[in-house]
Amino acid sequence: MKLDRAKELISGEGLDAFLFSSHSNVFYLSGFKSTHAYVVLTPEDKHLLTDGRYYEKAKAQLGGWNVHLIEGRATRYLKRFLRERGLKRVGFESDRVSCHFRRSLRSTKIKWVPYADFLGKLRMVKTPEEIEIMREGVRLSDRIYRELFNLIEPGITEIQLRGKIVERIFKVGASGESFPAIVASGEHSAVPHWESSSEEIKPNAPLLIDMGLLWKGYCTDFTRTLHLGKPSEEFKKVYGIVRDAHLMALDRAKVGNTLGELDRTAREYIKKKGYGKLFNHSLGHGVGIDIHESPRVYYKGEDSDVVIEEGMVFTVEPGIYIPGKFGVRLENIVAVEKGVGVPLSEVSLELVVIGDLSYGA
After folding, report:
1. Tens of pLDDT along the chain (361 residues)?
2. 29: exposed, middle or buried (Cβ count in 10 Å: 0-12, 13-18, 19+)
3. What is the phi/psi pair of residue 319, to 5°?
4. Contacts by 170-175 with C-beta closer than 8 Å and gap 24+?
């Protein structure tokens, strides 16, 4: 299905072939993971080219594919491969290659046609099999998050708690983090992309955890903000606004609506409550093989008018960040199934309060 749609795109662009060199697109099309492989797709054929480190594995795994051993310099081999098959007008991923690679492809016999995010629109819409893989991964992430409640103890640092997250990611059988987990305590939570530090997690303070894992080649992405000890009235107020904004946006995640509508719904509500300038990022982003994929869920830009389709998968993650005090972000991956957005996580959006660390209660 994915290959057929990609072949139709190639044919529709009047190309003889397309050279895919990015790891994520090679995996998307072939299901094969390596650090050095290329897919050459034509309207009729599918070829995977790799070196001696992966050749035997690729032959064993890729039934129905033409698997070729790259000998010598890769770009020289690729050009010869294309010339020998009479492939003259060839697309390539201009946004995924280095300047050196691009220069090395120069040829008097091949017309190279650059494309940015060539498969972006295809990858926006996941197959049922892809969504099920992502649901499995999210459920594992849910389990890890719930286990953290019993691991937060006096004296533990942000980076140590991140270490416990990573340890459990491997324990559940995932292949690693989908991005470096953010563990942000107290005022650190007011920095949307805080880098987990060696500072101790503060008692009687918010704790923001943004984490994800890699499951069968697909990413998960999840954020909750909990509170250690009794939360202030201001924190509870802000938390409630973010939660309600999240739910309002989710309610707009329906086939036929635009992505910009989701962002505007959450943004206008937060603005109405007096915190508009403190929501300083987009509502969400596509997610799948890469942690950030098309589309961007934002009221501005080219994706704002993208109409929601069955099978789209994206995050919903409104936030409010008060410098020097705290931040609140609540994030779920949402899959559009049977016309509506369905959160893949089963973790509630309600506030979790854990006992004061200074008392261990």
Report:
1. 789 999 999 999 999 999 999 999 999 999 999 999 999 999 999 999 999 999 999 999 999 999 999 999 999 999 999 999 999 999 999 988 888 888 888 888 899 999 999 999 999 999 999 999 999 999 999 999 999 999 998 899 999 999 999 999 999 999 999 999 999 999 999 999 999 999 999 999 999 999 999 999 999 999 999 999 999 999 999 999 999 999 999 999 999 999 999 999 999 999 999 999 999 999 999 999 999 999 999 999 999 999 999 999 999 999 999 999 999 999 999 999 999 999 999 999 999 999 854 433 3
2. buried
3. -155, 155
4. 172/140, 172/143, 172/144, 172/213, 173/140, 174/137, 174/140, 174/213, 174/214, 174/215, 175/213, 175/214, 175/215
The superfamily (CATH) of domain 2-118 is Creatinase/prolidase N-terminal domain (3.40.350.10)
Q: Are 190 and 323 in contact (CB under 8 A)?
A: yes
Phi and psi angles of residue 215, each rounded to the nearest 5 degrees, phi first: -130, 115
Return d(Cα 63, Cα 41) in angstroms, integer: 16
If one counts every other C-beta atom within 10 angstroms of the C-beta of residue 356, the result is 15
- Which tokens hold the place of 71? 């000998």
In Å, what is the CA distance from 278 to each residue of 221, 232, 242, 259, 266?
Answer: 22, 19, 11, 21, 13
> Residue 318, preceding bond cis, omega within 30 degrees?
no
Tokens, residue 297: 């869920």
Q: Which helix (H) or strand (E) is 169 found in, with range? A: helix 158-171
CATH number (3.40.640.10, 3.40.630.30, 3.90.230.10, 3.40.30.10) of 124-354 reads 3.90.230.10
Amino acid at 236: K
Backbone angles phi, psi at 99, to 5 degrees: -60, -35
Helix (H, G, I), strand (E, B) or coil at 43: coil
Q: What are the structural domain ranges in the chain?
A: 2-118, 124-354
> What angle is formed at CA 144 by the lines to CA 232 and CA 24, rounded to 5 degrees?
115
Interatomic CA distance for residues 5 and 295, integer angstroms: 18
Distance of CA 53 to the CA centre of its chain: 28
